[in-house]
Model the fold of this input.
Amino acid sequence: MNKPKGITMKPRIKIALNSILIACGLLIAGASVGQTKRGLIVAIGDYGPGSKWRPISSLNDVPLVRSAMQKQGFDAGNINVLKNESATKKNIIGALQDFAKNSKAGDIVIIHFSSHGQQIEDDNGDELDGYDEAIVTYGAPTEFDPDYDFSCHIRDDELDILIKKIQAKVGKSGDVIVMADACHSGTVTRSERISR
Done:
C-alpha cells in the first residue's frame, strides 16, 4: 500500500496537535477578550443660554481623546461622550456608576474631563484651605447664590468615591486613569495615590 504524499504524521497525533493549537489560540483570544477597555469623555465648552460661564474650547478635545483611545484598542461602542447639555451632573454620575457596575477585574477605564473647574466651600471639614475642588457640570450657576445646593458641581469627595468603586472592580490587574483639564483640577480626585 502506498503512503499518500504530504502526510507525515499518524492521524491521531495530527488531530491531538491541532486540538492543542486550537485550545492555545482560544486561551490567548480569551485573555484579550476578557479585558474590556471603557472610556468616558466629558467636554463642556458652552454652558448654555444665559450662562455667564466663559465659552471654552473643550469640544476640540473630543475627537483627539476618542482617537487616542481607539488607537489603544478601545472599541468605539465602549467610549461614552457627554458634551455640553448632555454633560449634566446626573449623566456624568450615571456613567461613572455604570463603570463601577459593569467593570471586571483587568479592565481599563479612562475618564477625561474638559470643562470649567471651581473651588467651592468645603462641606465636610476635610480641606485644609476650606475649599473643595469641583468639576463644573452643565447648568451650574456662575454667581454666588446662598440658596444654591451645588447640585451642578461634582465635588472632589464625590468623584473620589466613584473612582474607588471602579478601582475595586478592575482590581490590581486593571487600570483607572482620570484626566481633568479644568481649573483647580490638581486634587479633583482627592486621591492620596500617585497622580501623573
The first strand starts at residue 37 and ends at 43. Residues 16-21, 23-32, 191-196 have pLDDT under 50 and may be disordered.
